[in-house]
Amino acid sequence: MTFELLLVLAAGLFSTGLFGALSQQSIVMIMMGIELMIGGVVVASAVFWSFLSPAATGGQVVVVAAVVAMAVEMAMGFAVTTAIYRARQVDMTDMAEDLRG
Prior knowledge:
Elements: H1 3-23, H2 27-52, H3 58-88, H4 93-96
């Protein structure tokens, strides 16, 4: 695959995630959009790393570390969302505004 095609893929992932994060009210759907945006950034960074230094394997380690961090971040986010839902039956962002008090 060419670098341009992979960058288009990264831009598509980021754009889809941005649209999903901005257009939804469900907390889970917003988190999915953010995850897609982070995935697009990881793909783009891997492509740039491969373009700049194709022989170096350090970029692969960074990408794996980023994917692991994404998985941990999403697990924590879903845990917090589940705890909020169980405590207050809140699953939309408009209803979550009432949690301040």
